[in-house]
């Protein structure tokens, strides 16, 4: 559990504190262990990490506990007055607890586990290249945006005035969905519900009422969601942007939509989507981006020394390593020579370029081709994958046959949840590690006093509403409605603190995002950078937190012992 959850739970489980809360709430003695304040503060283990958490399931006695607050008339207060007294006491207790909650409690260099995994079982390490071994500066997104924008103008005859639009670094976040037919960019949660307030047409938000009218509510049916790989195909009208390279694409789509709307130009959203998609593809396929990066590699690649240190560490421990990337050899060679040195291929047992993932993991028909240092494709049949050689295309089934690297002894790292990780874990049983660079920024925000204060009171207020809604008299209902309005006003702040348009990559207001759901399914572990491996020895076992189900107790005895030891 997080320190925030542990502290609040442990403090309120203290007998004296419980007795005071029970006395204040006028709870019958037999219900002290389910007292209002105790119930109020219990949270899921990850509630303080990426949103305002999950509410407690209704427990036997909770409604009785809430009812008891306003059932007694011994103090002479009216029902509304007693509710406000509970509100003020809860707020006071929250303020008293805030100074005790440690800041910087989550280390951005931590490796987080979705599934138990021990490094002692891993014999072979595999890597993607872009945003896994090679991390890029913000200049790259500006470069991609500018080139694609100019391609739209030059090749697709879009208006010249589009050149006035520049890349907006903090506009979009990864994992968003785009409705191709409606030209709407939005964030969707793990249950296919649109997070209201995060729907954008162009560069401007769409009113909640309009969103609800267009979708007949907030739910997006499965048949129009993106397909397995996040693409809009076979009747799916939604496209999910899961690639870090997609941030410039989302921004360009939004800018062009904005231009057409500002100038009252009638256009077909489907054509716009396809043209932008083609322009972005040309930036990569035609080598425009690759040549620009190679010409000024120090401007675009960062953290190279950390990736080198990881590879060196694994090599020194006798681990097998391989590289499977969609990027071309010249580009990878230039980047890896910058990161590691000219002898970078000595570290890898197998190097595969232009693999065309995710097709590489599914299409059995494409054989490997050997590539010379000068980029010449050879025609000889490949009987084994040799160290020091470069191979192009191929498929995973042939890779498995030639190497014998199967099952859970293989750990593969990549940044794309679908293209890099999904098939490997679902079909082949490899262990998978997701590289999520955005994690570092989000953890820094989570560690701030502002976030801790906001979430502590939001959770407390939500608990009040949950339990006091049982009072149906008009005066009590008016109080609860006022609390609901306060909560509704606070919740957008939990979004804006991460990104003013779309909020956290990992959470809607309380549910996990669709991105989070896929991350937890397809990645055994995840981290902000491959360099996080440097903080662990190669015998380390990663354990996921036991996140309580809604019907389970959200506080485990072992957590009390561990946290109590830390407080001493």
Automatic annotation (TrEMBL):
The protein's required cofactors: Mg(2+)
CDD domains reported in the protein's UniProt record: HAD_cN-II (cd07522)
Gene: nt5dc3
Recorded GO MF terms: 5'-nucleotidase activity; metal ion binding
Official protein name in the record: 5'-nucleotidase domain containing 3
Keywords: Hydrolase, Magnesium, Metal-binding
InterPro entries: HAD-like_sf, HAD-SF_hydro_IG_5-nucl, HAD_sf, Pur_nucleotidase
Matches recorded under Gene3D superfamilies: HAD superfamily/HAD-like (3.40.50.1000)
Annotated binding of Mg(2+), by residue: 128, 415
Family, per entry: Belongs to the 5'(3')-deoxyribonucleotidase family.
Keyword Metal-binding appears in the UniProt entry: yes
Manner of cofactor binding, per the entry note: Binds 1 Mg(2+) ion per subunit.
Entry annotation: catalytic residues: 128 (nucleophile), 130 (proton donor)
PANTHER family xrefs: 5'-NUCLEOTIDASE DOMAIN-CONTAINING, 5'-NUCLEOTIDASE DOMAIN-CONTAINING PROTEIN 3
Annotated binding of GMP, by residue: 130
Pfam families cross-referenced by the UniProt entry: 5_nucleotid (PF05761)
UniProt keyword annotation of Metal-binding present: yes
């Amino acid at each position: 559990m997080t320190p925030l959850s542990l502290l609040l739970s442990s403090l309120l489980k203290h007998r004296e504190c419980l007795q005071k809360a029970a006395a204040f709430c006028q709870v019958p003695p037999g219900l002290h262990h389910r007292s209002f304040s105790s119930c109020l503060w219990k949270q899921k283990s990850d509630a303080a990490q990426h949103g305002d958490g999950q509410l407690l399931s209704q427990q036997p006695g909770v409604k009785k506990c809430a009812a008891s607050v306003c059932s007694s008339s011994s103090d002479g207060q009216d029902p509304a007055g007693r509710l406000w007294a509970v509100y003020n006491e809860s707020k006071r207790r929250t303020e008293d607890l805030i100074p005790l909650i440690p800041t910087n409690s989550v280390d951005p260099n931590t490796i987080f586990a979705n599934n138990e995994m021990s490094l002692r079982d891993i014999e072979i390490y595999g890597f993607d290249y872009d945003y896994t071994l090679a991390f890029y500066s913000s200049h790259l997104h500006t470069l991609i945006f500018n080139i694609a924008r100019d391609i739209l103008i030059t090749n697709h005859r879009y208006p010249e005035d589009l050149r006035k639009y520049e890349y907006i670094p903090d506009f979009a976040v990864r994992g968003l969905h785009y409705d191709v037919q409606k030209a709407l960019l939005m964030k969707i949660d793990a249950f296919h519900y649109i997070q209201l307030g995060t729907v954008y047409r162009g560069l401007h938000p769409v009113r909640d009422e309009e969103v609800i009218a267009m979708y007949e509510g907030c739910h997006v049916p499965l048949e129009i969601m993106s397909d397995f790989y996040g693409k809009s195909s076979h009747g799916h009208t939604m496209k999910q942007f899961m690639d870090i390279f997609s941030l410039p694409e989302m921004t360009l789509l939004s800018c062009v939509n904005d231009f057409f709307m500002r100038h009252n130009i009638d256009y077909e959203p489907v054509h716009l989507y396809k043209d932008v998609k083609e322009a972005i593809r040309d930036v990569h396929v035609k080598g425009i981006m690759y040549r620009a990066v190679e010409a000024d590699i120090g401007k675009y690649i960062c953290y190279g020394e950390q990736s080198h240190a990881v590879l060196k560490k694994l090599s020194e421990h006798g681990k097998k390593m391989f590289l499977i990337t969609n990027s071309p050899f010249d580009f990878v060679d230039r980047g890896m020579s910058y990161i590691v040195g000219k002898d970078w291929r000595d570290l890898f047992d197998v190097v595969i370029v232009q693999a065309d993932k995710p097709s590489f993991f599914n299409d059995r028909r494409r054989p490997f081709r050997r590539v010379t240092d000068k980029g010449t494709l050879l025609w000889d049949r490949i009987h084994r994958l040799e160290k020091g050689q470069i191979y192009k295309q191929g498929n995973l089934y042939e890779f498995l046959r030639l190497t014998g690297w199967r099952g859970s002894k293989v750990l593969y790292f990549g940044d794309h949840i679908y293209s890099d990780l999904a098939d490997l874990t679902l079909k082949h049983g490899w262990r998978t590690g997701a590289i999520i660079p955005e994690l570092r920024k989000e953890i820094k925000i989570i560690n701030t006093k502002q976030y801790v204060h906001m979430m502590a009171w939001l959770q407390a207020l939500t608990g009040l509403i949950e339990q006091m809604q049982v009072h149906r008299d008009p005066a009590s209902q008016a109080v609860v409605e006022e609390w609901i309005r306060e909560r509704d006003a606070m919740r957008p702040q939990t979004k804006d603190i991460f990104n003013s348009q779309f909020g956290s990559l990992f959470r809607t207001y309380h549910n996990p995002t669709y991105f989070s759901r896929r991350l937890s399914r397809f990645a055994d572990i995840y981290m902000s950078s491959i360099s996080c491996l440097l903080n662990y020895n190669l015998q380390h076992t990663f354990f996921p937190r036991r996140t309580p189900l809604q019907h389970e107790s959200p506080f485990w005895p072992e957590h009390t012992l561990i946290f109590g030891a830390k407080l001493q």
